[in-house]
Amino acid sequence: MKATIDRLHHWITEVPVKIGTLSELESSIRPQPHKWSKKEILGHLCDSALTNMQRFVRAQYEPQPYVVLKYAQNQWVEHMNYQNQPVRQILNLWIALNTQALSVITTIPEDRLMYTCDIGEGQIVTLEWLIKDYVEHLEHHLEQIFGS
């Protein structure tokens, strides 16, 4: 878990620096009509943080396997109205949510990381797997925003 925690901490520090290099216009351009802009991708990462924090907390006390909450990501991005908000506002939300997620993750007792979670389609994973998957998902979308 240390490597995963270190990666999340790295991004909480690095993303504000990298976002600062993008103009409001650059962050608002949709590459295609039904594709998210960079700030909508960042907003999606806020939604992911909200959803996953709930998973990380609930998985520790609900009966096992904890059935993870699903969410409709396109509807969340639309109804959260990220496209019409300043990228700085979305960034501030992202920083706050991921700082809190890091706090939750770092205080999970070792034995609870092995608690089981049902992610659907007959797949049972551990809470540790869910946390690692969260950070991998985050990095996938940061690659879309920033490129290599």
Helix content: 55-70%
CATH architecture: Up-down Bundle
Shape: globular
* CATH topology title: Four Helix Bundle (Hemerythrin (Met), subunit A)
Secondary-structure element order, as H and E? HHHEHHEEH
Distance between the termini: 25 Å
Radius of gyration: 16 Å
Oligomer: single chain
Biggest sheet layout: 3 strands, mixed
Strand content: 5-15%
Brief rundown of the structure:
Helices cover 62% and strands 7% of the residues. The chain has six helices and three strands, in the order αααβααββα.
Show the helix and strand layout.
Layout: H1 2-19, H2 24-28, H3 38-58, E1 66-67, H4 73-80, H5 87-106, E2 116-120, E3 123-126, H6 127-146
Parallel strand pairs: 1-2
Antiparallel strand pairs: 2-3
Helix pairs in contact: 1-5, 1-6, 3-4, 3-5, 3-6
Fold and architecture overview:
Helices cover 62% and strands 7% of the residues. The chain is mainly α and 148 residues long. The protein has a single domain, classed as Four Helix Bundle (Hemerythrin (Met), subunit A), CATH 1.20.120. α1 (2-19) packs antiparallel against α5, α1 packs parallel to α6 (127-146) and α3 packs antiparallel against α6. The longest helix has 21 residues, at 38-58. The chain is globular. The model has no long low-confidence stretch (mean pLDDT 97).
